[in-house]
Structures are given as C-alpha cells and as structure tokens.
C-alpha cells in the first residue's frame, strides 16, 4: 500500500552489522516524532492484526456479563433453581458464588497456561487452541441439564478466556506503535465493554421468553464471536517479538513486512526488537521465578498492583451481580435489565474517552484520578444506601450505574496499558499472567464473599457495600501516587534503563535516559540533521 511521501521512512532497507543498533534506535525516535493521527494512518495492516486479537477479547466481557445475567432470567431460575415459600424461584447462593468465583478461578489456570505455552510455541497457535476450547465449552453450557453441568462448561470456557487475556494483551503490547500504544492496549478493555453491552441488549429482549432459548440464546451467541475470530486468527502473523526471541530473524522480518506498509520500516523495527531483546538468547531459561528477581520484582509488583485495582474496586461484584443488585434495591426484573444496558453504554463511553486521552495525558494521572473518582462514587452510593427513602434509593441506583463510566474512563483502560508496558519484553507474557491471575484470584474471593455481604438473609448490605470498596480505593490512591510510574512515549529500551537505574516512579516522566539520547542522535545522523532541525516522518 503506497503511503504519502511525507510519511515515508527515511531508513535504508539493509544495514551492516555495525549500523544495526543505530537503525533500531533511529526508528524509536521516528515513532516519537510521529503524531497520534499520523501513526494511526501509517500502517493499516498492523492495526488489522491487532484488531483480530481485540475482537477475540469481546467474548470475555460477553461471557462475564452473561454469567451474571443468566441467573436472573426467570426460565433459568425455574430450570436450575429452588422454589421459595412465596412460589418464586431462585438460584442458591452457593451456586451464585460458584458460577462467579469458580469461573474466574478457572481463568487463573488459563492465564498461567497461556503465558507458558505462548513462550514455548508462540502466541498464534495458543490463541487458536483456546478458541477451540471456547467452542467446545459453549457446547457444554448450551446442552446443560443441571446447574452443575452448566458450571462445568463455564469453568472450561474461562480457562480459554484466561488464555485470551494473557496472549491477546501481550500480542498487542508487542506490536503497538509508540504514539498509539496506550490506545491499542487500552482497547483490550474497550473490547471487554462491547461484549457486556451486546449481552445486556440480548437479555433485555430474551429474558421474558418462556422457553429455554431465553438463556440458551446468550450461550449460543459466543459461537458467532468464536467463528469470526477464528478466521482472523488463522490469517494473522506470529508475534515478531516471539520470533526474534527464538532466533528466527528471517521469519520475524517476513512478519514485520506484513505489518508495516514501508519495507524499510519493517527492517528498522526488526533491529529495534533485536536491540530490546539483547538477552533474548536466554529466553528459554526465563521462568516465573525470574519475574521476582532483581529489578523485575518491582516491575512485576507494579503490574500486579494496577490489576489488583480491578478486583478491589468491586468490578467483579458489579459485573457478576448487577441485575440481582438492582432487584434487591427494589427495581423490577424488566427495569433492571434495561438499566444494565444503560450501564454498558456508560462503560463503552468511558473506555472510548480513555482511549483518546491516555496517549496524550499519560497513564499515571489517569490511573490515580480513576481510583479517586471510584472512591468518591462508591462512598456516595453507600451513604445514599444508608437512607431509607425513595430518593435515596434512586440515588443509589444512579451511583451504582455510573460505576461503569468512572471505572472505564480511569482504571479500566489504563491498567492494561501500564501492565502491558511495564514488564521487560522477554517476561511480558509471564508478568501479565501473574498480574491477571492475582486479579482473578481476588475476583474469585469477592465473587464468593459479595453474595454473603449484600444478599438479604446474610449481610444485607445492599448499596452500603460501597463503604467497603470505596475505602479500599482510597488506599489505592495513596499507593498509586508513590509507586505507579509514567510510561507515556517511553520505548521499551528506555523503560529497561529506568528500572535498571532504579529511578523513582514519580521521576519517570522527566528523567532523561541514555537510550533516548542515543535514539535522537541516531535519528539525526540518519537524516543528516543538526540540533533543533526536524525531518519528515
């Protein structure tokens, strides 16, 4: 595809061994010089392959939303539930907890297995294998004759979803151009907002059906997502970072030529990856234990910390028990499903705004502000839930629904960008697996505990559960200020240097690295520039 001349790379197609490092550094500076819009238009094929992985993630949000909604559908409750004294049906609390907590626990297995398998065999075959598992597990859910069988299918499905989360985020982080890196990685969160939106619309229309299709239609829809995703997965190239790490430079070159419109950019990015993976020949010996050694420990802890904010903000509670919570607040079944649609529209709006802002404002301020906003919102919800008036109930419903926007505009998108950028390249998949597994472990905990906290007959907190999650988010605001660094417009080589030199997190933004100085010098030398001059990029 021919590109406008003003955006053509200035790099030669090949380089001698002595020029390779300079070529890799010069392309880093070229990416810094390009604007967000220039980068977005530059390489459409790269965006397409990233889009395949982002499409794959839609199923995670859809399945999570469907899990919480299906237990509120009358036909499902009649089919698999127990009968109350008043003649109504309900799903036992133990199965509510199991469907929420057990499934997210299964995704831990998927995340760990996915990272290990992708490091050994590559991301592409692992994603295709996970899609096959997803298709089979949906069949089990669809054919369920008991809540135990439905639970078994969901467990298997979430193993596949855990694999998707680790591998898709890692792949997008590997190939994302610098100027739009947070936009693409943050899209991992937006993809997971689109799924619940589709699920909420379907539930609104199908929940009143009198046949098993009221809930089976939700399950069967996942086959559609899987079929479309599988076509793209079969066509997409392998991660070039994986190929270079395995010493397959020629294969990596072919892959990059499929991603970049200009072959000269492809060659330069091959040298950039090689430069970043200077220790790639030891990749086979890199284990999970290495994530906790030396400066990698700090990088792992930051990734774990930001992903912990997902679970500790109450996300699992909101996503798994949204419809039930509305009903406990006195909202009718039909109205609760409609409110869920509104909540998902707010989720998509928040995630979309975050995509547009994160590459301009930065990850650190958006994450801190997001935690602070959630703390305020949850505490307001709890306070209104402590007052027994119709106006207070309405306010609680409003605050509860607005959680979707506040979460996604701040925390939801930035955690993927931060955790995707922070790890060293050769440990990215494993670090993401650890972070995601920790988040899922906490979600599992809250999935079991939350029903006991807010259900009538147990804690009966209802909206007052916001006191718990709001207080936790205040702690996250303080910790994030001291420990979450700014990674905006930092190449992976620069981030390696910042962590190796143990630069404090609050100083990341202004600290001048040797890597960025060398990149600027290499770029100027390639273009024959003197200080202060600029070249077309």
UniProtKB/TrEMBL annotation:
Residue ranges constituting the Major facilitator superfamily (MFS) profile domain according to the UniProt record? 49-488
- Key words, A-Z: Membrane, Transmembrane, Transmembrane helix
Q: Where do the TM regions start and end?
A: 45-62, 126-149, 155-172, 184-203, 223-244, 302-321, 341-360, 367-387, 399-419, 431-453, 465-484
Q: Which residue positions does the secretion signal occupy? A: none
The record ties this protein, via SUPFAM superfamilies, to: MFS general substrate transporter
Q: Where in the cell is it found?
A: Membrane
**One Pfam family of this chain:** Sugar_tr
> Which GO molecular function terms does the record list?
carbohydrate:proton symporter activity
Main localization (coarse): membrane
- GO CC terms: membrane
Q: Which InterPro entries match?
A: MFS_dom (IPR020846), MFS_sugar_transport-like (IPR005828), MFS_Sugar_Transporters (IPR050360), MFS_trans_sf (IPR036259), Sugar_transporter_CS (IPR005829)
What membrane topology was assigned to this protein in its record?
Answer: Multi-pass membrane protein
Lineage, top-rank taxon, reads Eukaryota
In the record, the note on similarity to other proteins reads: Belongs to the major facilitator superfamily. Sugar transporter (TC 2.A.1.1) family.
* Name by which UniProt lists this protein: General substrate transporter
